C-alpha cells in the first residue's frame, strides 16, 4: 500500500524541541494549550465517528489514565515491542475492539489508513500522540500531513525527552481558513503561568 501523507501530529515543544522530563511535561500547566490539544484530537466533523490515535505504549498508558472521559472518542493504535497477546493480558481492562497493537510505525500507518478507508468506517482521521520515536519515524517516512505545534518560547534546562529529528523543511507554516476548528488561535501568542507560547500550524508541501 502506497501511503500518502495523511496523519496529524499534535505536540507542545520548547525551542530545543523538548517535550518532557522524567515522564512529565517540563512546564507549568497551560490551560489554553490543554484545550487546543484536546479539542483537535477529539473533534470530528461527523459526531458519530472517532479519531484513531497512534501512540507508544507509555504514552498510551498515560493517556487512558489522565484523559478517561475522552477515551470513547478514540481508537488506539499502540506501538510496542510486546506481542498482542501479552499486551492484552497485561492490560486486561482495555477494550480490545478499541485498541490495536502493532510493532512498527509502518504497521500503525497501514492500520490507520485501513480504519479510515473501510466502507462505513467509524474512524474519521488519525492523530499521532508520540512519544519521540513515533514522532521521528512518522516524519521520516512522510506519513505526516499536518502539525499542530505549541511552541514554548523557552529553552527548558536539564530535560531528558527531546525530538531531535523534528525537521520542518518539508512543511510550510499556514494560516487556516476561519471556518476550520480553532483557526482563531493560529499564531496567537499566550502567556500563562509564567510561560509564553504560540500555536503554530504546519502543512506538508506539495501534497
Question: Could you please describe the fold and organization of this structure?
Answer:
It is built from 5 helices and 11 strands; from the N terminus they run ββαβαβαβαβαβββββ. The chain is α/β, with parallel strands linked by helices and 207 residues long. It has one domain (7-204): Dihydrofolate Reductase, subunit A (3-Layer(aba) Sandwich). The strands form 2 sheets. Strands 1, 3, 4, 5, 6, 7, 9, 10 and 11 form a 9-stranded mixed beta sheet that branches. It has a two-stranded antiparallel sheet with strand order 2-8. β3, α2 (57-66) and β4 (74-79) form a beta-alpha-beta unit. The longest helix is centred in the middle third of the chain and has 13 residues, at 105-117. The two termini are 17 Å apart.
Supply the CATH class. Alpha Beta
Shape: globular
**N- to C-terminal distance:** 17 Å
Output the helix-strand order: EEHEHEHEHEHEEEEE
And the CATH topology?
A: Dihydrofolate Reductase, subunit A
Q: Report the structural category.
A: alpha/beta
Main sheet specs? 9 strands, mixed
The number of helical segments is 5
- The number of E-state strands comes to 11
Average predicted confidence as pLDDT:
94
GO molecular function: dihydrofolate reductase activity; NADP binding
Pfam families: DHFR_1
Catalytic activity: (6S)-5,6,7,8-tetrahydrofolate + NADP(+) = 7,8-dihydrofolate + NADPH + H(+)
Enzyme class: oxidoreductase
Amino acid at each position: 500500500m502506497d501511503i500518502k501523507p495523511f496523519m496529524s501530529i499534535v505536540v507542545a515543544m520548547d525551542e530545543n524541541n523538548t517535550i518532557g522530563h522524567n515522564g512529565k511535561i517540563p512546564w507549568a500547566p497551560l490551560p489554553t494549550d490543554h484545550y487546543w490539544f484536546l479539542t483537535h484530537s477529539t473533534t470530528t466533523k461527523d459526531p458519530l465517528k472517532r479519531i484513531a490515535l497512534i501512540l507508544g505504549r507509555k504514552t498510551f498508558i498515560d493517556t487512558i489514565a489522565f484523559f478517561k472521559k475522552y477515551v470513547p472518542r478514540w481508537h488506539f493504535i499502540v506501538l510496542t515491542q510486546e506481542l498482542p497477546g501479552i499486551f492484552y493480558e497485561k492490560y486486561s481492562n482495555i477494550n480490545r475492539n478499541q485498541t490495536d497493537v502493532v510493532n512498527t510505525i509502518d504497521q500503525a500507518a497501514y492500520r490507520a489508513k485501513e480504519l479510515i478507508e473501510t466502507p462505513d468506517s467509524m474512524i474519521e482521521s488519525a492523530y499521532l500522540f508520540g512519544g519521540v520515536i513515533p514522532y521521528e519515524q512518522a516524519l521520516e517516512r512522510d506519513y505526516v500531513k499536518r502539525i499542530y505545534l505549541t511552541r514554548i518560547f523557552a529553552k527548558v534546562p536539564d530535560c531528558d525527552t527531546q525530538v531531535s529529528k523534528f525537521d520542518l523543511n518539508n512543511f510550510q507554516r499556514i494560516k487556516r481558513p476561519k471556518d476550520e476548528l480553532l483557526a482563531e488561535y493560529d499564531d496567537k501568542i499566550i502567556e500563562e503561568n509564567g510561560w509564553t507560547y504560540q500555536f503554530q500550524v504546519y502543512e506538508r508541501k506539495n501534497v
